[in-house]
User: Fold this.
Amino acid sequence: MKITIIGAGNVGSHLALTLHRAGYSILQIYSRQLLNARPLAEKVGATPIHQLSAVSTESELCLLAVKDDAIEVVAQNLSAFLPKTTLLAHTSGATPSTLLSDAWANWGVFYPLQTLSKGQPADFTQIPMCIDGATPAIQQALQEIAGQISHQVHLVNDEQRATLHLAAVFINNFTNAMLQASHTLTEEAQLPREILSPLLQATIQKGTRQEPRMAQTGPAIRRDQQTIERHLRQLANHPELSTVYKAITSYIQTF
Amino acid sequence: MKITIIGAGNVGSHLALTLHRAGYSILQIYSRQLLNARPLAEKVGATPIHQLSAVSTESELCLLAVKDDAIEVVAQNLSAFLPKTTLLAHTSGATPSTLLSDAWANWGVFYPLQTLSKGQPADFTQIPMCIDGATPAIQQALQEIAGQISHQVHLVNDEQRATLHLAAVFINNFTNAMLQASHTLTEEAQLPREILSPLLQATIQKGTRQEPRMAQTGPAIRRDQQTIERHLRQLANHPELSTVYKAITSYIQTF
Assistant:
């Protein structure tokens, strides 16, 4: 299968390299700056392009790995240069398929659910691939490709993918914010950073072996109001953290 | 050194077993119910007792592993039966040392910073031991004992320990709540549980290798208001989660 990758950023780079290693023929790499497309194109034996009009009509699959805001307009522009039989798939967690289906009959979604950084190797076998497509045949085709690079392939519709994106905010963005909060506090108390690492490890182990609320401990679930009030007094100089503390405490008390 | 352990719960059990294995002589195990003290006492070759008046005056170290609320009154009661030269240490993260020092000259703190469950083995070598004491000699004595069971021993004063306890709430209680939030969302969308596991693993890796705020991604830090508003609409049926979402989003925007 001949694949063109539109975008040479985090997702485009990782997908190009991974699909190339899996034996797929990467025809072209597009970036608005030819300079950005060239090093990646060299690595995967593709032609670098910087104009959508240069996209090859031989592409069987065209993977859109551009910013979410650009997906709709790039899809519309490509429809002037590619035959309608080409399979066009975006790689975004946050973007509904309707942004493709308005301009394109053979649309698909090929979304790697992971935080990827350019230049940092990622083991795609461990990355869940979320697939969707206009028809069962397209879904099957994309599932087969995904199965060549990952052990975890899921058929995920628009509504599910929107939920997944929101859940990812809690598990990644918000968990990272909890790490920052404890980091700030221990740093202010001049305590060494590694002091909380064993607790974090145990937390993740306990919370992933069972339903997390079954592993919940602490003053919120015990409704230990004295400790909660003492903690809030300690946070007097951190109004944002105080608000976070109250909000999560109330949430835990619904468990 | 002869040690008496007051309390046969999670912390008392783990400390008795671990100190016994490290070669310390455990004289007595106290529990209000003799039935609770007996099995643990047998394992470590100690005498089970259920009355504070039975505490041995030969104890050189008396470790208080009772509930936070009980520490003050047990310390006061023990002062009627133990010589003032006995070293009395509590094992609590949340309790200031003043609750001991009011009744006791030779007070100390011997706090294992970890979430412990009775019956589940814990590798104490990886558990940070937080030490405090009335005098440098007591601090040194407790640091030496802690060093026999753990690779991580820290001298931590009352104020630092209070901060540590609060930071532990963020890293354990609140992180676990984030896991529960994403679990609830993916379950409602009928997605398999393991789909977010790789993202959680990458989150912890990235957030512990550097200052977590440097690893922050997502709509909050990007100030992507459209996505934030879409997420809040998705949370319409989860008012507590909606409040959590807003609070953490505001906090991230202070990074």
